[in-house]
Amino acid sequence: MTITNNRVMKLKLNGIYVITDQQLTPADTIETCVQQAINGGCKIVQYRDKTSSEAQRLKQATALNQLCRKNDVLFIINDDIALAKKSAAHGVHIGKNDASMKQARELLGPDSIIGVSCYNSLQQAIDAEKQGASYVAFGRFFDSSIKPHAVQATPALLQQATQQITIPIAAIGGINRHNAADLLDAGADMLAVISSVFAQKDIKSATSNLSELFNVKR
Asked: Which of 44, 49, 166, 216 lies deepest, with the highest CB count within 10 Å?
């Protein structure tokens, strides 16, 4: 990926990045929940479901993809590159135990978005960029009810990353309205959130409150 393409990605991959959760966004309300997050200003939606049947996941992913495209929001599939292909998603997000970057790129093509979890490793992020990743994600940054035992990352890591890679950076893990600004100041392009949006009574307002942080001049 060229530097020019990276600049384009910086514009596209920016803002609140919501991730669905089987407990917080169950099958009967997932579309409504995602629509509320979109109405609140989220820019990217990731569909994450590890246990439902293949048919159920394809049905939900296809519906969410259509919803996101209608609202000009990027739609990403967690870990399943075949599902990303079948549902015509914008791309996939992979972790250390998922498919390889090469496999994802070969199946999804050169224009698809491929995000890579790098946890607290700057070297993994550097390697991911060299291999053609569209963006990298670091975290967890704060206590997380979703992944309480995830490795710890720091704002200093974000600062170092912005000096050594050019692709967009997502921060994830326990992020909320009160602690998010520090991560943006450190260089995060995206704030990936689950509970701070989908566990709230008013999903639209919760998303909007986070989205407003991106309008503050830094």
From this structure: 44
Task: For each of the domains in the chain, give its residue range(s) and CATH number, in order of start.
Answer: 3-215 (3.20.20.70)
Closest CA relative to residue 198, chosen from 5, 34, 16: 34
Per the annotation, the verdict on 105 as an active-site residue is no
Identify which of 108, 109, 107, 139 has the alpha carbon closest to the alpha carbon of residue 121. 139
Q: List, for residues 92-132, the tens digit of each pLDDT value.
A: 999 987 778 899 999 999 999 999 999 999 999 999 999 99
pLDDT in tens, 104-113: 999 999 999 9
Q: Does residue 48 have an active-site annotation? A: yes
**Burial class of residue 102 (count of CB atoms within 10 Å of its CB; 0-12, 13-18, 19+):** exposed
- From the list 87, 112, 117, 195, the catalytic residue is 117
Tens digit of pLDDT for each residue in 132-187? Answer: 999 999 999 998 777 777 889 999 999 999 999 999 999 999 999 999 999 999 99
User: Could you say which of 10, 12, 48, 59 is catalytic?
Assistant: 48
The model carries a pTM of 0.94
